Amino acid sequence: MSHFEHQDSGSGLIARCAVITCSDTRTSDTDHSGNRIAELLEEARHSVVFRDLVPDDADRIRQAVQDAKKNGARLIITTGGTGISQRDTTFEAIQSLISTDIPGFGELFRMLSWEEIGAAAMMSRATAGLTDDAILFALPGSRNAVELAMQRLILPQIGHLMAERRK
User: Fold this and answer.
1) Alpha-carbon span 72 to 16, nearest angstrom
2) What's the pLDDT band for 2 if we cut at 50, 70, 90?
3) What is the H or E stretch that residue 65 is in?
4) Cα 30 to Cα 33: distance, rounded to the nearest angstrom
5) What is the pLDDT of residues 44-61, one digit of tens each?
6) What's the DSSP call for residue 13?
7) Average of per-residue pLDDT across 61-70
8) Residue 148 sits in a domain of what CATH number?
9) In terms of residue numbers, what domain contains 79?
10) Which of 5, 93, 147, 158 could form a disulfide with 61 if both were Cys (CB 3.0 to 4.6 A apart)?
11) Considering only CA atoms, which of 123, 114, 112 is closest in space to residue 150?
């Protein structure tokens, strides 16, 4: 099987997804990044089965991820709280749930971000990994960062990720 045939093996799979916004300042009316993630997933014909907006608090973030999984989400995307300020706790919360890292996601995200925003890309702690029953992505809260991660990295690979995870 060629690389392209292997990668295409999951095309057409519909993922059950969750979108969790982690922010002390966003409301449902101002959650442009979370809304955009949900829009992009639905446009790609994936199912958004869970949405939440929680404060940037590690315990609340971990609970939201658990709630998403209880609602059947197998692809969970958070937005916000991946920077380096003292209130940014999403990275630590997500890392505590991950059993297997997907380091290439963060590396590629920062490389692509470098092309758009230069050296400030080094401050992003965007990350991804696996739990026993879900794939987690933690994205920055900026709408531009969400567009980049979703369009260039996550959406093109969802089917393949889900197929590999089922093996």
Assistant:
1) 7
2) very low
3) helix 58-70
4) 9
5) 999 999 999 999 999 999
6) P
7) 98
8) 3.40.980.10
9) 3-166
10) 93
11) 112
